[in-house]
Design brief:
The protein is an alpha+beta fold and about 375 residues long. It is built from nine helices and 19 strands. It is globular and about 60 Å long.
Length: about 375
């Protein structure tokens, strides 16, 4: 799942298909807006929701994620042109992660691609990229369509996610493939999901049937609703950067120095330049190794603030971009953009002191390391 940053301003958010159920479960009544859609920050408390995702099953309203269908004889070519995910190599039912890049090879967004049928794909993005995708479709026998407001989406995360999906009548017998099925007469798509170190299932179904499925899941498996704050802890621990929080997408960056390459975000394994042609591939080949890189730190403190300075042996070397208290680590976990090659660091605290920090091994970091060890031949992009 790939949520963009909270909306800073704008009109009142629209209700997602699952808003009625989410509002009924949100005892904390803490809300925000993502892509113009309502999203719960916390339902009960972050620790409870985090624990459910790691030991049982948690349910997420994934309605704010932007989704497109690509349909037609050359739909695979369209997505292979637009994004680095290996769309053309996917078999029906398979999914893969990737990036949208600009011409210079800078990261525009993180994406997920699923092949539903031979000529039908689902593309999930953090933000809307309608113009970019329409341009990619020019000259091809394929149509790209934004379906965000026309479908409902929910995710089940945790070790019991597949059991919960099966108990509600979803066909999840194949752990590797997406499945088009009918649940009590309703067309539904269920596909495997990876979020940091957690595995799960994402379900996409007609907008008007969302509350029915939520209630069926609640009765069959009682999954714990999971808000954005708990998701933030999980994604930081997993090494998944969030657009608008940990980096600025290249299309929104006002200065060249604000743009980031896949390597600078620790995501080079999602855009291997040896793969078949995609937008930005030529620019990617000419990029220099970054002098600063996003790194996840474990910090010996109960509280630090995003934006806090990070210090090395010779002074300030960077700043935190996002931070959350990790119930598993019993300390703070944070993304920091710091000078490459730095190991021993300290982080500024709110009281003026400093706390020791060290690099944290993450699921995404292990994939990146495997990519580097293979000289750029492995991608680890499929679910």
């Amino acid at each position: 799942m790939i949520f963009a940053a909270d909306d800073a301003a704008g009109h009142g958010p629209r209700p997602t298909a699952l808003f009625g159920a989410a509002a009924g479960a949100a005892a904390a009544n803490s809300w925000t807006s993502v892509n113009g859609w309502s999203a719960a920050r916390v339902y009960t408390n972050v620790a409870e929701e985090y624990e459910a995702a790691h030991t049982g099953v948690a349910i997420v309203d994934a309605g704010p994620i932007v989704r497109y269908t690509a349909r037609g004889r050359q739909a695979a070519e369209l997505l292979a042109r637009a994004a680095t995910a290996p769309a053309a190599a996917l078999e029906p039912g398979e999914s893969a992660r990737g990036l949208l890049l600009d011409q210079a090879g800078n990261v525009v967004d993180l994406v997920e691609t699923a092949r539903i049928a031979s000529d039908l794909f689902l593309l999930s993005c953090s933000k809307s990229h309608a113009r970019r995708l329409q341009l990619a479709a020019r000259g091809l026998d394929a149509v790209i369509e934004d379906i965000t407001g026309h479908v409902a989406a929910l995710a089940l995360l945790g070790p019991k996610a597949r059991d919960a999906a099966a108990a509600a009548g979803l066909d999840v017998t194949n752990e590797a493939l997406a499945v088009q099925t009918r649940v009590r007469g309703v067309e539904t798509s269920a596909r495997p999901l990876s979020f940091g170190a957690l595995q799960g299932v994402e379900v996409i179904l007609p907008f008007e049937e969302a509350l029915t499925l939520w209630e069926r899941l609640r009765r069959a498996a009682r999954p714990k609703p999971l808000g954005l704050d708990a998701l933030d802890v999980i994604r930081i621990e997993g090494g998944v950067p969030r657009i608008g929080v940990d980096f600025i997408g290249a299309d929104d960056a006002r200065r060249e120095e604000d743009k980031r390459t896949p390597a600078a975000l620790g995501l080079a394994h999602l855009a291997p330049p040896t793969r078949a042609w995609f937008n930005g591939r030529r620019g990617l080949r000419s990029q220099l190794a970054p002098s600063r890189r996003l790194t996840v730190l474990a910090i010996d403190a109960a509280r630090v603030a995003p934006g806090a300075a990070v210090f090395g042996l010779k002074g300030e070397i960077g700043r935190l971009t996002s931070a959350a208290f990790s119930p598993h680590l019993k300390r703070m976990a944070a993304f920091a953009e710091i000078a490459t090659g730095t190991e021993k660091v300290e982080v500024a605290l709110l009281d003026g002191g400093r706390a020791a920090a060290e690099p944290l091994e993450t699921a995404e970091g292990r994939r990146a390391e495997a990519f580097r060890a293979s000289d750029g031949r492995a991608t680890e992009s499929r679910f």
